[in-house]
Design goal:
The protein is mainly α. It has one domain (about 1-90, about 95-205). Helix content is about 75%, strand content about 0%. It has 9 helices and no strands. The protein has helices at about 1-10, 10-35, 40-55, 60-85, 100-105, 105-125, 135-145, 150-175, 180-205. α2 (about 10-35) runs antiparallel to α4 and α8 (about 150-175) packs antiparallel against α9 (about 180-205). The radius of gyration is 19 Å and the shape is elongated. The N and C termini lie far apart (about 55 Å). One of its GO terms (cellular component) is membrane. This is Succinate dehydrogenase / fumarate reductase cytochrome b subunit. Keywords: Membrane, Transmembrane, Transmembrane helix.
């Protein structure tokens, strides 16, 4: 009962946002590290993907990811509605939240969610990738990033993710009672964006082929 009461409070919901956000951030970093294996060649990244399937962590990870995403989105909507009710009129004199990242958190989340759906259909289910072959991660990624519209969509999604992390990581730490400079969130967001974008850049430039 006390747990439910805490969840219903604004503080509790912010804590849920923080915990699920940290969980999603850890997944994003782990996924990025896996993607970077492409620079070691087909055997490395294909072997890594096969190893994840062999040790049986793929489906538990997917379930945990789905749970975190679901809770994160539901609580975000609830907090937005609560904030709107608490402030029925717009900001005085047209003032907005301090950072561009803060102003775009909602739409950035939508962009990321839509891209994740496409990404799953493309590289997991294979239905959106005409060149997709199950288990051939290296070839599937290279085939994808030879298409300009895939590179464009991927870049937009990664930049939206970077803005989301830049604002969200710092907010999550604050909600969990951890004091950290805002610059740390910027460094983390920049490093993640650079890591993810290095893969399509390498394909476009012919470094990976």
């Amino acid at each position: 009962m006390q747990t439910l009461r805490l969840y219903r409070s604004t503080v509790g919901k912010k804590a849920v946002m923080a915990v699920t956000g940290v969980g999603l951030l850890l997944f994003v970093v782990g996924h990025m590290v896996g993607n970077l294996a492409i620079f070691s060649g087909p055997a490395a990244i294909d072997g890594y993907a096969a190893w994840l399937r062999e040790i049986g962590v793929v489906w538990p990870l997917r379930f945990g990811l789905l749970l975190c995403v679901g809770l994160h989105m539901v609580v975000a909507i609830q907090l937005a509605r609560r904030a709107r009710k608490a402030r029925p009129v717009g900001y005085e004199h047209g003032r907005r939240p301090q950072s561009y990242a803060a102003r775009t958190m909602r739409w950035g989340g939508v962009v990321i969610a839509l891209f994740v759906v496409y990404h799953l259909l493309d590289l997991t289910a294979g239905v959106a990738n005409p060149h997709g072959v199950q288990g051939e991660v290296y070839n599937n990624l290279v085939a994808d990033f030879r298409l300009w519209y895939v590179v464009l969509a991927y870049t937009v999604a990664v930049l939206a993710l970077g803005l989301h992390i830049r604002h969200g990581a710092w907010s999550a730490l604050q909600s969990l009672g951890v004091t950290a400079p805002r610059g740390i969130a910027l460094v983390v967001a920049t490093a993640i964006c650079a890591g993810y974008l290095s893969v399509p850049a390498a394909v476009v430039l012919g470094v990976v082929s």
